[in-house]
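Ticket #4471: complex job returned nothing on first submit. Input attached below:
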Amino acid sequence: MEVEKVIKTNKKSQESKFSEIIRRTYTKMQPHPSYRWLVFILGFPVHLVVFLFYFKQREKDTYSTIVEETKKALLATGFKDKLILELKEQLLRKHNFFGQKVNQKEIEQQAEKWAEEQFQKTVQEKAASILEVKGDKRITYETTFQSLISNPLFLFLTFIPGLPMYLLILLYSNPYLKYIFERLIMSLFVILGVAFFVFTILYLSPFDPAANILGETATKEQIAAFNHLYGLDQPYLTQLWNALKGIFTFDLGSSFSGNEEVASSIARKFPITLLLTVISLIMAIIIAIPIGIISATKPNSFFDYTFMFIALIGLSIPNFWQGLIFILNFSIKLQWLPATFNPQNWLSIIMPAVVLGTGLTASIARMTRSSTLEVINEDYIITAKAKGLTQRQVLWKHAVGNAMIPVITVIGLMFGGMLGGAAVTEKVFNISGIGSYIVDKQFIPDIPSIMGGVVYIAITISLINLFIDILYAFFDPRIRSKMKQY
Amino acid sequence: MATILKEKESYIKKHALKLSSEYTQASFTWITSLALTIIFLVSSIDFSGKAMKPFVFSVFVAYALFTCIQILITFMIKKDLQSIGYLRNSTRKLGLIQLLSILTGNIFIFTFAIQLVKAEKSPEYTLAGYMLLTQIFIIAISALNLFKPYVADTFLPAMGALLVMAIFQLVTFFLIAKDGKGKQRARWKVFFAIPLMLTAVTGNLFALVLGWNMLMHERFMNSPSIGKWRKVWEKIASNMTAMLGLFFIVFVFSISICSYLTFDYGMAVENNYSAILQAPSLAYPLGTDNFGRDLFSRIVFGARISLIVGFLSTAIPFIIGGFLGAISGYYGQRTDNIIMRLLDILYAIPGILLAIVIIAAFGSNTMTLVLALSVGSIPTYARTMRANVMMVSNYEYVDSARALGSSNLSIIFQHVVPNSLAPMIVKATLTIGGAVIATSSLSYLGLGVEPHIPEWGNILKIGSTYLESHSYLAIYPGLAIIALVLSFNFFGDGLRDALDPKLD
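Support reply: We reran it on our side without changes. The output follows.
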């Protein structure tokens, strides 16, 4: 009996706590117009009910009568005329100070406008204070909503029809979830934008794929049939809609030349590019980060100069030239490694990975060095040294972790560049990855293939950056505290 | 007093090695010079024939000689600094021997020697040295055309003009060297400055900067406003790698202007079937390609395209991205949100892929290439500008301008933007190199400059098909690309140290 009671009260307090969270978060969401609209749309049935209540309660509201009364009282004291005179004087003095020409009519208009604004503000303030003295509250739509939500019965009844709205409000109440939600929406927006942008550019192209594929001898009927087959005769918006739908359903139709499924050929070619990029990325991280840290701990030493010089050269070498020189030396002259890529021979991926990773290695090494150098001169490192920690402890426990934060961002951003830049390396080593696929298709131009390739790469990059951002939200205390503030 | 002086002296002596710019420069010089010497040694030996190439070997001997002297000088500098804390005059005199290395074309040793022979260096002195070096290099490179079967009609008058300019610049150099630190007033500077700036029509930008510095020095002897410009140049001039980078950029710029008069375009584009795939010789310093076109002339003419495309595809996003970034950073809130979210879309597509898409849509030619490369880098410039504008627009002088009744636009473009340009300039210098690489990469894929134009990527594309038999066709244009990009990176690093902007 006793236990049951405790459970009951517990349940009740939990319930009211839940409604309290919803009520508070709802108030917090009101200043953001986009969220206000989203709440309204998602919880439309609930809002309908609230609206009825609001209409009924408004009749009891005394606010409007109080406003009228204060207005009359203020007008009777000549408050508004005094305001106008004061503002006019101020404007005149300002114009005099700057030596500007005075236009009497303009000044009067301006003064009147400002006076009206100020008057309304004063009236509202006064009315609010009178209301407070009386112990009443102004009834607005929001207050109605809040009072209803605090009622557990109302919450219970509207829980099912207003589920999406309540979920949104709950999402907003947790800063992490809110951050992830906002980031997801942004990524979605970027992906849609990329698809739209790429499609529009290709649509605007003055080239005619039909003429390119069918050859110069094609008749008008053949070209028309081709355009009809691939939907190129449809209006822009229809084509755009089909393209967007195709991206999200992984069904981009068949390519113009070769008549193969675009989505499946992209799926076939994507893994090798991804593998290549990931291998180069791992290689770059393993080589670059130790070099960067060592260079930073011994700045301006011979070691530092040498490695930074090599890194700068690495940044300046064009991928394709490096690939050619590697082929010349290691494949043709020394015959150590195969010149072209072959999936069965794992030795053949070494050269492409090194070539693709050189630029990244150089950037990461430089970035690690500058970032570590910056951190090493911070005050908290001096504190750590003063505490009596050894050089090694200071470096590994306090400096490196913090120095890695910007480096990881750079790695995330560079990874995207690598996925794109892989096209050149793939061409040099004859790898049939996504990059060389896009390059091969661009001569026609084969719109669905190019768009599919570019958009799926952009999606991959967006997702990786999203993942890194979310990881940061959990690991970087500075971001965490900033997130909680809003 | 005496003890303080003594202490200071001992401090300088103790840290002389680290404080002295000569010592670090000397070490850098002998290492690079040694690397060049070894490269010459290796290339002088014909491994398959087990024979020596006498010409390359003699170059190696000359380089080895100067490198040995350089190593000796480095040791003497170290000894001087450790024992007395400064360089003895006898050590500096050794630099005079090293000046002769200009005859071998070893710019590292030559520029070091210029720095070594003078104890107190003004930026004008260094600039004058590099100006002279550029002019000599232009003349030397152009003179290689003498070995060709025929030269351009304008070759002789152009060479004459270049020589006259070089002599004038040499005289200026000696006068500046005699002038000491450049503290005292000198009337002659004004008369030299303007003709000197006129010699910059050859593309020798060092002459332009030097002339401007001399003129301004004379005009505003005591003006603080010119301080920043001078200070930046002082810092860059004391940075050897940055100056070497700048030297190569100016040299490439200058040769692409002078080549209009001193090089014959026909050599680079017209087929000559009697001289197909010839090995490097005096008439064809870097050999010929499969159509008998002179590779050397092609590389020289290719510099023009690389520089133009690199410059334009940096300038366009600099202006557009800078404008968008300034607007969005200054107004903030909704404007910022809309502009930056739209630019995020561009940012999500890797630069090369975006360029490929644009080229696929509008065809591969130079104009499309510039446009394609520009569009991709708008967001990065906008982000840099935005971050700086956000910082600068919180400063007091912006508030005071607003209180004085300036309009928003005039605040942005008169107060905020000029004060947030430093990081943008550094970024631009560092990304021109990237644009040069992207240009040649796209040309290599057949998506860039039209194939009949001698552009470095196009030359490499041809070279790559002869990798096994005539690898020099692929090596030399690649070296040109690396040298130019490396120069931009070195100069950009130096500029960053000199301007010291807060980069994110």
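Chain A touches chain B through 54 residues (CB under 8 Å). Closing as resolved unless it happens again.
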